[in-house]
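Protein Record: Sequence and Backbone Structure Tokens
======================================================
Tokens: labelled as protein backbone structure tokens, with as many entries as the chain has residues.
Task: work out the structure tokens from the sequence, keeping to the layout shown below.
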Amino acid sequence: MKGTRLVSRIVGDIMTSACIFWVIAAVVFGIIEGATVALVTIWFALGAVAAAVAAQLGFSPVAQVGTFVIVSALLLCVTRPVLKKIAVKDPQKTNADRFIGEIGIVTEPIDGINSSGQVKVGGSVWSAVSESGCAIEKGEKVEVIRISGVRLVVRQA
């Protein structure tokens, strides 16, 4: 009778130790997730919680590891695509971005060699350079292609 109690106590201690191990693993994964905020380890933290439950229910160490792997993989496969759709937003355009695609008038000749010239677009005057590097005369209409630093990159419209 004493031998059975001793074995039962040893098995109980091992299960408790395994449960503590998985809880510590979950906490560590949670801390890493909190530090990175990149949805990298949250699935492993939840998998470790599932493995801790398996350990508490008396599952073998192999079954605990299997529970950890399966739950982590399932959560990763199921929730990551959904969370990426929610988390990824279109970049907000700045005020300057609204000029891209707009037509403007050259107010000072654009010189491809000296990188000088100005364009008036939407009531604002900007320094401008030609996309092709060619000169563009004053009064010509140009289309804004992109913004490079504080200059508009334009081409003849």
About this structure: The first strand starts at residue 103 and ends at 111. The helical segments are 2-36, 42-56, 61-87. The chain has two domains: 2-87, 96-156.
